[in-house]
Amino acid sequence: MAVRGLLLYSAFALAFVGIGVLSYDRPTARGSYFVSLPETFDSTSPQQVHISLVGNDKMRISWITEDQTPSTVQYGTSPGKYESSATGNSSSYKYLLYKSGEIHDVVIGPLKPNTVYYYLCGVGSAPEYSFKTPPAQFPINFAVVGDLGQTEWTNSTLQHMAKSNYDMLLLPGDLSYADTVQSLWDSFGRMVEPLASQMPWMVTQGNHEVEKIPIIHSHSFTSYNARWHMPFEESGSGSNLFYSFEVAGVHVIMLGSYTDFDPSSAQYKWLQSDLQKVDRVKTPWLVVLIHAPWYNSNTAHQGERESIDMKAAMEELLYEARVDLVFAGHVHAYERFARVYKEQANNCGPVHITIGDGGNREGLANDYIDPQPKISVFREASFGHGQFEVVNATYARWAWHRNDDNESVMADSVWLTSLASDPT
Ligand SMILES: [Fe+2]
C-alpha cells in the first residue's frame, strides 16, 4: 500500500506558473474500491445504514438485511439505553437477475435538535450506531459533494468530511456509479455507512442513477428510489426525484435533472408552489441542488439538454425567488461563479457552484474553455468537497477543500450575504 501510495503521489506536484498564479498538477483517477460483506455478518445483520432528515424533527433510518427481519429501530440518548422504538416497513426490488436484500425504512422521532442519539437497526441487534440531529437554529455546517463513486479518492473525500464535524451532507447526484451492476450499490452502501449512519445524507439523483436499459429494464431510478428514499411526501412532491426540506433557517430544494422540467411538468409546478411557500424570515437562506450544471466553463458536458433546457425553463423561477446558491455536480471538477442570471453577473442572482469532484472512477475533467469567462471566479479540476457554513441569517462561508496528497486543503473560500438580507 505504501509503495503504491508513493508511486501515485510521486505524480503530484505543485508549480508556480506566471506571477503569483498557482497552477496545480492534478492527480489521476484512482482504482475502484469494492467493499465486501464482512465474514462475521449473517443474513440478518444490518448493513448499508444511512439516515436522512424527515420534517423538522424526525429521521429516516435505512438499512439492508439479506433476509427478512423486523423493521424496528430502538433508540435513545444514552449508549445502550433505548427508551424509544419505531417500526416501519421493508421492500426489495429486482433488476435483471439481481434481487436486492430487504431494504428497511423506519422513521423515528420526534427528536431533540443538536442531540446525539444511539440506535439499533432491529430489535436487540448489533452494532449500536449513533448520530447527531442537526441544530434547530444557526449556525449549521453542511458538507456538499457530488459524483462520489467508490474509489480510493472517494474514500479520501469521505475521510476528510468525517473529520470536520458536519451537521449534514448535501449531494447533487451521481452516488455509486453502479451503472446497472447492482452489487456496486451494495458496496457503495457499505462504503458510506460510517459517515451516512452518523449524519443525514440528503441527496438528489444524477445520470448514473437512471439505470434504464431499453426493453430489458424499462424503469428509471429503480435502485436509487428503493435505496435512497428522500422526504418528498413531506414537501408535497409526488416524486422521490424532487423535494425540499428546511433545517436551521435554510430551505433546501432538490431538483431532478433527469426527469421532466418543462413548464407543464409536475416538477416545474411543484417548484413553483414550493418557492411560493418559502418564508425568508423563517428560512433566510434558499439553496437549490441540481445535477447537470447550468453554468459551466469546463469543456466537459457542454450542450446537454439537462443543462441548457432546464436552465431555460427554470432559471427565472429561481431568480425571482432570490435563490442564494445553486449547487451542481456532473462535471468532475470544482468551479465557482459570481452571482449570475442569464449569463450576466447579477447581484440578485444565485451563486452557481459545481462540486462534482467527489472522487469517482471516471477521473477529472481537466480541460477548460479559454479564456475564463468573467463570471467564473474560481475553477480547478481536483478532487475534494465543499463546506457551506451558515453562520447566521445574513452571513455564510463557502469553502472548497481539495484532496491534496490525502490532506484536506482549503483552496477557495468566500463569504456570502443572503439575498434575504441584501435584496438589492
Ligand atoms: Fe453525472
TrEMBL record:
Positions of transmembrane segments: none
Gene3D superfamilies, A to Z: 3.60.21.10, Purple acid phosphatase-like, N-terminal
Pfam families: Metallophos (PF00149), Metallophos_C (PF14008), Pur_ac_phosph_N (PF16656)
Enzyme class: hydrolase
Superkingdom of origin: Eukaryota
Keywords carried by this UniProt record: Glycoprotein, Hydrolase, Signal, Zinc
Record-level Gene Ontology MF annotations: acid phosphatase activity; metal ion binding
Cofactor: Fe cation; Zn(2+)
Keyword Zinc attached: yes
SUPFAM superfamilies listed in its UniProt record: Metallo-dependent phosphatases (SSF56300), Purple acid phosphatase, N-terminal domain (SSF49363)
Catalytic activity, as annotated: a phosphate monoester + H2O = an alcohol + phosphate
Domain Calcineurin-like phosphoesterase, residue spans: 141-334
InterPro entries: Calcineurin-like_PHP, Metallo-depent_PP-like, MPP_PAP, PAPs-like, PAPs_C, PAPs_N, Purple_acid_Pase-like_N
Residue ranges annotated for the Purple acid phosphatase C-terminal domain, each copy included: 349-409
Similarity field: Belongs to the metallophosphoesterase superfamily. Purple acid phosphatase family.
Name of the protein in question: Purple acid phosphatase
Species, as recorded: Nyssa sinensis
